[in-house]
Design goal:
Layout: H1 5-26, H2 29-47, H3 54-72, E1 87-89, E2 96-101, H4 106-120, E3 126-131, H5 136-142, E4 149-154, E5 157-162, H6 167-176
Parallel strand pairs: 2-3
Antiparallel strand pairs: 1-3, 2-4, 4-5
Helix pairs in contact: 1-2, 1-3, 2-3, 4-6
Amino acid sequence: MKISTNTMIFISAPVLVLLALVSAYALHAYAAIGVMFACSILLFWLSNQATVNRVAMITGYSCAFACLILVAGIPSGEIGMKTCPERVANPDSEAKISFFYSPFCPGCFKAEAELGALISSGVDARVEWYDARFCHDDADRYGFTGTPCIAVEKGGQVERACGILGREDIAALLSRSG
């Protein structure tokens, strides 16, 4: 069974919408724009492969353009809103460690493993995990612009550090903050 170009254009438009929304949720609104640009090139290529019903082509392009406007107008993180902090360990402790990470940051995996080892060793601190893609206000409060970053609050004092920190470095931040 051969699929006509018109059918491909009608199928491509909803697939374009789905890819854009998944990209915006999983990554960032700008990634969704890139996905939609790539899909628009696909639509253009399909429309040049054969005689195409102009209504099908206009429908496909209109859908792509509407998605572009929709996703470009959504601020980063508003499609897949997450609660901030995402996870909390030792919620009753006085001291607080705020860990900012990104799932696409290789250094964050190492820093999170070190933080987990510190928690397992019995550190007395509330530990909060923040996905930096979604928790902009919290990151701005500490002045963080990258990942991995850790803020330690204890006794009204705040110590900040960014980069891959070992459990000894995190424990030192905790002891310096109060």
